[in-house]
Structure formats: structure tokens, C-alpha cells
Amino acid sequence: MTKRIIPLFLLLTLPSLVAHQDTNIRLLGYTFYGLPDSYQPATFVLEKKRIRIGTNAVTIPDYLWKRLVRSEKNRIDFRSSWYHNLERIPPYFVISAKESNTEDSFNLTLNLDTLEVLLFEKETRTSDPSGTEVDYEQIAIQKPCLDSWIIEKH
């Protein structure tokens, strides 16, 4: 009897023990790879700061882009999640600009279904022999910038 209870207990608690992890999205040319078919076409034109996912497109305002990507040396990465508990947070898409000389990055999180801004934050990583600590600081986006966030339907 005990042998069956332990595996059943592990089976029931395993989903809560496994941490959620975003899916890395690759940008090759102007095309994003790694998103499901329901979010296609998915493109990003860096020179225009224009992102399109599915039927929605938006040009990231200069003011926000300059706060996100503070240097041309920053590395820009993309990640997304559409397979988590949608009752807590909608599917999302993150544009992350990692600063070249630190472990800091700035993250712009968008609703994957609508491209509305969900969050803008600074991510700071500090490491020591005992591990890595990650801190998040939410950054306010000024109303004029949000007003210039115009989502186009295609």
C-alpha cells in the first residue's frame, strides 16, 4: 500500500514542482521562429522597430525603444509563453535587451494575443558562489508613450 501512495503523491505534486519556463524565440532575417501557427505571421523589422504577430502589428515608439535598448551594443532576445495557466496571465511575448557590460537587462512584455503592453521592467542579476539572485523593478511608462502605442489590425 505504501509503495502506491508515494508514486501517486509524486504524480499529483509534480506539476507544481516543475517551474514554468518561457520558450526562446529566434529571429532569422525578419521572421520569428518558435511561435505556434496560430501566431503567424510573426515578424520584426529592427530598423523600423515594428513587430507583427498574427493579425496585430505595432511600431515601438522611439521613447520606449530608447529606454529598452540603451546602446547599439545591447543583445536583443525574444521569448514567449502561451502554454501556462491563462487565468493568471495572458499569453505573452518578451523583448529583452541585455546590457553589454552588466548582467542587467530591460524587458518589455506584450500580450501575445493583442500586442498591448503588459509590463516594462529592469532585470538585475547578481551572482556569488551560493548562486544567482534575480531582482525585477517595474518601470512606469509615461501616458504620452502609451498613447502613441497604436496597434494595427491586418
Q: Helices and strands in order, then pairings?
A:
Layout: H1 2-17, E1 23-28, E2 31-33, E3 42-45, E4 50-53, E5 56-59, H2 62-68, E6 75-81, E7 92-98, E8 105-111, E9 117-128, E10 131-138, H3 143-147, E11 152-153
Antiparallel strand pairs: 1-2, 1-6, 3-4, 4-5, 5-11, 6-7, 7-8, 8-9, 9-10
Features:
single chain, 154 residues, alpha+beta, seven-stranded antiparallel beta sheet, four-stranded antiparallel beta sheet, 3 helices, 42% strand, disordered N terminus
Percentage of β-strand residues? 35-45%
- How are the strands of the largest sheet arranged? 2-1-6-7-8-9-10
Low-confidence stretches: 1-18
What is the total number of structural domains?
A: 1
The whole-number mean of residue pLDDT values reads 86
First-last Cα distance: 59 Å
* Major pleated sheet: 7 strands, antiparallel
Using the CA coordinates, give the radius of gyration.
18 Å
Order of helices and strands: HEEEEEHEEEEEHE
Query: What structural category characterises the helix and strand content?
Result: alpha+beta
What's the count of strands? 11
